[in-house]
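Sorry to interrupt, but I need a hand with the structure work. Can you supply me with one protein entry, sequence and fold together? No commentary is needed, just the two lines. Leave the record below and I will have a look.
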Amino acid sequence: MTSDILIIGGGAIGLAIAVELKLRGANVTVLCRDFNAAATHAAAGMLAPDAENLTDEAMYALCWRSLALYPEWTHKLEELAGLPTLYWPCGILAPVYQQHEQQNTLLSPSARESPAYWLDKTAIQQYQPGLAAEVVGGWWYPENGQVDNRALARVLWTVAESVGVEIKNGVSVEAFLQQQGKVLGVQTSAGVFRASHYVLATGAWSNELLPFPVRPVKGQMLRLRVPESLPELPLKRILYGENTYIVPRRDRTIIIGATKEDVGFTPNNTPAGIQTLLQQATRLYPQLQDYPIEEFWWGFRPGTPDELPILGTSPCANLTLAVGHYRNGILLAPITAAIIADLITQEKSDPLLSHFHYSRFLPQSTPMFTHSANFTNGHRSVATLDNLDRNVITTEDSPLIIAGKTFRSRLMTGTGKYRSIAEMQQSIIASECQIVTVAVRRVQTKAAGHEGLAEALDWQKIWMLPNTAGCQTAEDAIRVARLGREMAKLLGQEDNNFVKLEVIPDPKYLLPDPIGTLQAAEQLVKEGFAVLPYINADPMLAKRLEEAGCATVMPLASPIGSGQGLKTTANIQIIIENSQIPVVVDAGIGAPSEAAQAMELGADALLINSAIALAKNPAAMARAMNLAAVAGRLAYLAGRMPIKDYASASSPLTGTISS
């Protein structure tokens, strides 16, 4: 049994991905263990990126992008299914009980995308009569809302079947069949299924198949019914209170949720759980205590240690991950479907995927300590880390992730300006870099110093970064980028869609054209490239390029090849502070001290070519730049001491013996 794409998991996430891929022309099969057991059915259907008070900016951006898709997405599904999803942008009220809560929450939406309005005690009681007298105010989020999660599940299932997705319900996946970094098939209760590509969307059960830190977080919920004696719905907005939420439906039912219990897959409702829910809900909206109870249920959220999803590539080349959505699976269904489909069908990695890559949970090693630091002066060892407790000096770090691809080294190098191919080879080895940028035009034209370049490096170990050096217009850069992608494929990197974008019409100062760069970036992103644009240290341009979908931004430290060092420090700091994608400092660094300084600012990586190639001993300088990048990164993570305007003795006088 084979298909183009096999999706494991038949909840909202799995079905949404299946529908999106099928509508793009793929042959899709879904394996579902138990459709009714999916967390989709146990949810409340809240669409609440603001009310959830998400603190992770990447997660907030992902949730808001998904919320923005909801009106069109649900309309399309309803037309295909002929059934309603009951999407309702009813808004959410977040009441608070104490004045100190009000003061804290006054700051919460200040930098957020959506409008949020603070309502004082009088205003909130007028806006929603019946709230408890102890409510002192609250936030009103008019653009948050809800969808009937069970209705959405029925619609997704119906649409999937109607467009030709093959759904196998009641099939349990028991194991992946893997070989040499690829999935060859899945062993199931119904035999072996095979596909060209696989998607894992198994929610809370993901850890049973692959060792990712996804655990079940049980939630108990209940449903009340509005008494027939009340002619109108008393609640027309979701109430998101302290440790509770109350979701009114247009069918005159009200959902109350939800407990949060780390009890594994322990089933059933409990008196303690239901009592807690009722106490919290009736405290917020007292008249609920007289409403009849219609239903109790429970479900298992797929939680991760940081409460963020795991999305994107996996250790297997043909397996994509879409798990760990925790409390926001319903909200994130449309954006997850879109970016996973882009990744599979177009090899287009959304910039946000880097924040949700599985590698963030891997044990982190520190490359600077993989070699014994045994420097010698003559025949005498003057320093060693061999006997030092390395836990004392390691600082938790995440790998460098660009467009979903993980790199250990934070130093990138180039291939130009070397006196010989041999010096270039030695320098790249000494630098321990994993990304090497190559000028497409110079390789294709076999320009001086680039003869035999393609054969000179081990492209099984080095990731090629084709660049558009020499291009003066956006159109020219787009054409050369396409050639670069084909060049990478010829060298065995079939999935390499990276391009370092350079648009430089100025022959004297070699400063990049911001308008041409943005134009070219927008087009290349549409074509599925992971774009790494070389730019002036312009914070506004950096943000525009990020919004356009670029994989990184690469601001110059000073004019390219000048060796002037960091001349744009203030602007680079602003770019780093405001960027949600990696920032790579590129151009102008002339010495290891400057490389370390750039990393101390918080840059994610460096690209250094001229300072290495033009050194008297390029290989030694490459090694020095490697150590500088490592030292700067470690210093940034360690956190430098504050700068003071006065002296402070290293050995204080307090407690010393005095005569």
Observations:
- The radius of gyration is 28 Å.
- Confidence is low (pLDDT under 50) at residues 100-111, 364-393.
- The first helix runs from residue 12 to 23.
- The chain has 19 helices and 30 strands.
